[in-house]
Request: fold
Amino acid sequence: MKYYIIAGEASGDLHASNLIKGLKEEDRHAVVRGWGGDLMRQAGCEIVRHYKDTAIMGFLTVLKNLGKIKANIRLCSEDVLRWQPDVLILVDYAGFNLRIARVAKEAGIRVFYYISPKLWAWNTGRVKKIKKYVDRMYVIFPFETDFYKKYGYEAKYEGNPLVDAIHGRLFQDETFEQFVTGNRLPSKPIIALLAGSRSQELKHVLPKMLEMTEYFPDYQFIIAGAPSMTEADYAPYLKGKEIPVVYGQTYRLLQQSSAALVTSGTATLETALLKVPQVVCYSGEGGMLSYFLFKVFVKVKYISLVNLIMGREVVKELLMQKLNRRNLRAELSALLGQSEERKRMLSDYEEISRRLGVPGASRRFAAEIVKQL
Reply:
């Protein structure tokens, strides 16, 4: 069968790549085409457009790029209709994907959604579009089935594919000395900086993270290089600082880190599953205007997946105006050494792992998709 998959960011690329592997195991004749990234390509997907050319986030940034967004939607729609897949599989990325869903559905192409958009966080009105244009919804958090049930729509949960990614990662037995020696780093405790995979995130979050280097001289700060970024993307923010950037080693870096500063998103859950205490950081352009829009439209109490899964504050979230030098320094300090805050967070991480279940979710989702087709 022919599968067309659309992922619009790094986390979607990761999940889609594992799904593709499962589809190829379940369907020996699977042919995959789509929009995504390097991991999808490595899994056997023909990539039409890389997500680094399409990822746009933030209220104001989207407004500034409406022309580009419309052009991408037109290009993608035309490619889907020309290729005529047996199913269109959408991965998160709601603003873009729901428009493609409508085009595909009206053309008689089956539409499956793998990894629900975070409609429960904001814009619950999009549930109407889901019900109208999406044949099957596959969710990766247990609370999402209850969310959709309120709207009379069935969603299927088979576990969380991040558990697969963490469970199957390379270098699980690597020691601290092996990691620092292999990367030519000093033998000092590490604080990891996960500043996101989009240029807007680097612009608004990374400078605030880097301010912490002067307060923690006994630690080395290391940036987890996003697959869509190059050294040239990070250079303007380093300004002569001796801060290494390591690429393709995020899990290895986290595994050896004492703590992490993490931009909100999938990385917060990855950090928790790897048992690294963290402070969640989020900011955007527009100052008070963005903060006002954020408070008006976001419908949930928390934005990090860690806190959402637990239904309470496990990790500290420093959002918008609260992401400043004083707060970040205080919250990071509280997680170092053998503090009670650190012990409590690590204990909560164990409960998160239990709630997300056992490995094998990607294969189970793939089997369910092939079964439906």
Remarks:
- The two ends are 9 Å apart (CA to CA).
- The chain is about 45% helix and 15% strand.
- The chain has a mean pLDDT of 90.
- Residues 216 and 333 are 9 Å apart (CA to CA).
